Predict the structure.
Amino acid sequence: MNDDQKNIILIKKIKTGDRLAFKELINRHKNYAFTVAFRVLNNREEAEEVAQDAFLQVFKNIDTFNFEARFTTWFYRIVFNAALMQKRKNRIFTEDIDLCVQASEVSNLSDSSEEVRKYERQEAIKKAMQQLSADDVMMITLFYLQEQSLEEIAAITEITAETAKVKIHRARKRLAEEMRKHWKDEVRSLI
Amino acid sequence: MLTDEQIFDIIDGCASAELMQLHSHLMNNSLEYKQYFNELEAIHLDLAALPLEQTSANFTEKVLACIPEEKLVVIHVRERVWSRKLTYIFGGTMAAMFLIAVGIIIAFQPTSDVTSNSPDIFSKYVSTLQVQYFTKIAVLLNLIVILVVFDKKILRPYFRHRKVSLG
């Protein structure tokens, strides 16, 4: 049984009021929903709130889900809209405490230089993503997170597949530019 | 040099054979292209390897706490055309029976002459009928109507709901 079939069974159970099925659905998708929201908002608390609201919306509107689209497409559209709305709400950039926590985690890594380098690269990517627009971050996140097809990303963001492809290309290019800036700064700081 | 779109197509694995050939050629002959391609490919691999963020431990419980204990199950009961007229049918039957009863009483009411001249056997029979059979039939019909209404309005929805909630 694939993921989609499992989702369909769970949704049918939720429609009859099965709380355990809803719990399972949350556990299956919470990290993906949270990651999407977190990458856009860059704030754990807000991202959790957005992910929670998205699940509550799913529960409230489960009767309107007609199985024509994939559940993930429907669900990520809810998360996408909620995250973008939240992003628009707080225009003021707030530094997340988590970055400090993550920085301290570097010291907990083993001495393997490969691991440290990998961690540094990932952190650099995350930082570079913070410089991108919410739209760009969402495109990249959806493209890489669950290997969504262009058609699915198009359905989530309500644009055409061709536009989605162009947007993903542009977002990756902008990310590359940000990364280049980041590494230049790193080299400059070392000098 | 290839365009960024073409390079990303190669990275995503959806480039044409012709494009792949051009890419191989550039990789072997252009250091600038090779560096640029490697840079984009590294970002692509890093993005693909980015781990999922983890929610707080009590995330699921927090969501479940926000939803009502038991979601109301909406049962769509198809309303029959005749069931809307049930009240009128009941009232109409009662009125008809009342009129029939009144009619019988008027029609077979014994006159004073008949009573004085001879014993009215027919009236006696009708009178007995009125008391015994007619009343019993009327009561029985009422009971049937009440049972039908009780079954339609209470028993059936109740058992249907039980069936749904038992899954």
Notes: Helices of chain B lie at 4-12, 17-29, 31-49, 59-65, 86-107, 112-117, 121-165. The longest helix of chain B spans residues 121-165.
